[in-house]
Design brief:
Elements (H helix, E strand, L loop, with lengths): L3 H9 L7 E5 L12 E2 L9 E2 L3 E4 L9 E7 L14 E4 L11 E4 L3 E6 L2 E6 L12 E2 L10 E3 L7 H9 L4 E5 L4 E6 L3 E2 L10 E2 L2 H10 L5 E6 L3 H14 L2 E5 L10 H7 L3 E5 L3 E2 L5 E6 L6 E7 L3 H16 L7 E5 L3 E2 L5 E11 L2 E6 L16 E5 L5 E2 L4 E6 L2
Parallel strand pairs: 5-6, 13-16, 13-17, 14-15, 17-21, 19-24, 22-25
Antiparallel strand pairs: 1-12, 2-11, 3-10, 4-6, 4-7, 5-9, 8-9, 18-20, 20-21, 22-28, 23-27, 24-25, 24-26, 26-28
Helix pairs in contact: 1-6, 3-6, 4-5
The chain binds ligand LQZAQKY5, molybdate ion (MOO) and magnesium ion (MG).
Ligand LQZAQKY5 binds next to helix 3 and helix 6.
EC number: 2.10.1.1
Pathway: Cofactor biosynthesis; molybdopterin biosynthesis
Pfam family, one: MoeA_N
Length: 402
């Protein structure tokens, strides 16, 4: 049996077989960028006016009387200032007219009709105006051919905006793994079936598929009975067709817990079986080589008790599947916990903010089969194995699922 930190380290060494794919810009949200994105033109691409008002040449202007020559709207081609002492009315987003270098906003100007001419007068002290104000200079943010986004970053709406602005309609991203979620067990029926008194509906598959969906990863769902022939035949095929396999159930000490043995027979190399933790002690993990790829097929055989399944998925599997190192969150315990066994204890907990501090109330429920208890919780507090009493105010790690 290995400790939780070791199990985590072992799994993080691996990646599923890496491939890239091209997707429509909007479908790239949440994915990992597999190409670098360069600026096709300067940012902004022209001297962009930043305030509605008047534009003029700063040098030699008479703030008390400035002739308004015309208006330059956003989206119009660039206009030209004729008289260096005059101005052009200007709108935010317009290109700065040639001959102008400074913009004063409408709030600081009065424009009057005098003898059929429009005359602007600046109403604030001229010392408050600076040369070039309210002009977002061409190339002041980024310059053409500069790299805007490096390959390897995760795409959020901010990156989508940058890519849209350089005209990227399709984006090269790292392909999501092909994931199989497999429930095992003779006692399980699908949710469409009314269970007999000795049966239960399978909930683990739906829990895992839903968790993957939040990362835009689609999973194919399977149910296999506790029959060595069925397991062998189906797992052979599933292993061929998928990069990541998430099994639940059949990994403990039961007479029909065949999963580890059959995976080994199918060439999945065991990395470990059993982790010194509660829940999820019987967790099994292995890998299978893939030809011409550094990545490996990753097989997570999760213990069947739903809280164990979910903890092992959140703590160990999701970071590699989503290729996202979890943010290390720490919380302060708001309730004391006693836990005797020499195991890392992942206790379900609800978190809330108080005075800028994140507090966690452990909701231990009635154990690793009590998955309804998770609906009150946001994640698991990670309580180290070295201690048996965890006091109020103690700072511990938090594995978040909500
Ligand atoms: N003699 C021992 N017995 C058990 C040990 C042990 O160390 N020695 N470990 C216990 C622990 S801890 C766990 S966790 C479970 C893990 O068991 P398995 O991985 O073999 O899972 P199953 O036996 O197939 O099922 C356990 C439990 O979970 C329910 N289950 C399974 N799949 C689903 C599903 N898809 N949806 C909902 N519920 C599911 C299943 O009906 C069982 O009740 O073993 C202990 N035993
Ligand atoms: O891992 Mo088991 O979940 O302790 O019941
Ligand atoms: Mg079992």
């Amino acid at each position: 049996m290995i400790i939780s930190q070791e199990a985590y380290q072992i799994i993080q060494q691996y990646t599923f077989p890496q491939q890239n794919e091209k997707v429509a810009l909007l479908s790239s949200k949440g994915r990992i960028l597999a190409e670098s994105i360069t600026a096709d033109r300067d940012f902004p691409p022209f001297n962009r006016v930043a305030m509605d008002g008047i534009a003029f040449a700063f040098e030699g202007i008479n703030p008390a009387a400035i002739l308004v020559e015309q208006i330059q709207f956003a989206g119009e081609t660039q206009k030209q200032l004729q008289d260096t002492h005059a101005c052009i009315e200007i709108m935010t987003g317009a290109i700065l007219p040639s001959g102008c270098d400074t913009v004063v906003r409408y709030e600081d100007v009065i424009i009057e009709e005098i003898e059929g001419k429009k005359i602007a007068k600046i109403t604030i002290p001229f010392e408050e105006i600076t040369l070039g104000q309210n002009v977002h200079r061409q190339g002041s943010d980024k310059i053409a051919r500069q790299i805007l986004l490096e390959a390897g970053i995760r795409i959020s709406p901010a990156e989508i905006a940058v890519m849209a602005s350089v005209g990227k309609q399709e984006v090269q991203v790292v392909a999501s793994p092909k994931v199989a979620v497999i429930s095992t067990g003779d006692e399980l029926v699908d949710i469409a079936v009314k269970p007999e008194s000795h049966q239960i509906r399978m909930s683990n598959s739906y829990m895992l598929a839903a968790a993957l969906q939040t990362w835009n990863i689609e999973a194919q769902l399977f149910h296999l009975t506790d029959d060595p022939e069925v397991l062998t035949e189906k797992l052979t095929q599933i292993l061929e067709e998928h990069d990541v396999i998430l099994l639940s159930g059949g990994v403990s000490a039961g007479k029909k817990d065949y999963v580890p043995e059959i995976l080994a027979q199918l060439g999945v190399k065991k990395c470990f079986h059993k982790v010194a933790q509660k829940p999820g002690k019987p967790f099994w993990f292995g890998t299978k080589d893939v030809e011409n790829n550094e990545g490996k097929k990753l097989v997570f055989a999760l213990p069947g008790n739903p809280v164990s399944t979910f903890l092992c998925f959140c703590k160990y599997a999701l970071p590699v599947i989503a290729q996202q190192k979890p943010k290390v969150e720490q919380v302060s315990l708001a309730k004391e916990v006693f836990f005797k066994p020499n195991l890392t204890y992942f206790a379900p907990a609800q978190v809330y903010f108080d005075n800028g501090k994140m507090l966690a109330i452990p909701f231990e429920g009635s154990g690793s089969a009590d998955f309804a208890n998770l609906t009150n919780c946001d994640g698991f507090v990670e309580l180290p194995s070295e201690k048996t009493h965890f006091e109020i105010g103690e700072i511990v790690n938090f594995v978040r699922f909500r």
